[in-house]
Write a structure and sequence with these properties.
Layout: H1 2-8, E1 9-13, H2 16-19, E2 27-31, H3 32-50, H4 61-81, H5 85-90, H6 94-103, E3 109-122, E4 125-138, E5 141-154, E6 159-165
Antiparallel strand pairs: 1-2, 3-4, 4-5, 5-6
Amino acid sequence: MISKLYKKCFVFHFCPTLVKGGWGDFKVKIPKIQYALLFICLLAIPFLTSCGKKEVKPVSQESQLTQEAFKLAETLKTAYLKNDRSTLEGNATANGYKELASGIKDFDSAELSFTPTWVEVQDSTVNLTISWKGTWVVKGKTTEERGLAIFILEGKPLKLAQIQRSNPFRQPE
């Protein structure tokens, strides 16, 4: 019976001389299940104490400008597709609107998709590089084009100052 109990339990010997047959056999028997529970508790303590608080990192100035630039690009695209000139004018500088309005022609319907690819922030100027693809329908004729545009955004709040490379708001001939 004792040998079966030893197989089921780990044995700790507190004094080696007692084990060899001194004046009594002093052994402490700890069942395996208690070892498993102790091991689980020791593993759980670091996880429970390290995940106490979630720190919220403040958003950087560059990140805020980037998010604002993305929103402005979407606003300009939506206003162009709806042919809303007042929104375009409100979100562009005087020179930016002149450049923008000079390329806009009438269309029956249009689809435009923007994919921002690069953002550069220099002082108060943001250069937003956008890969775009557009489809225009004019008098039943469908025209597709794609390109890469750089929106130069200035001011606070950001406004379109200039479009470099291929203008997505200028429908192809």
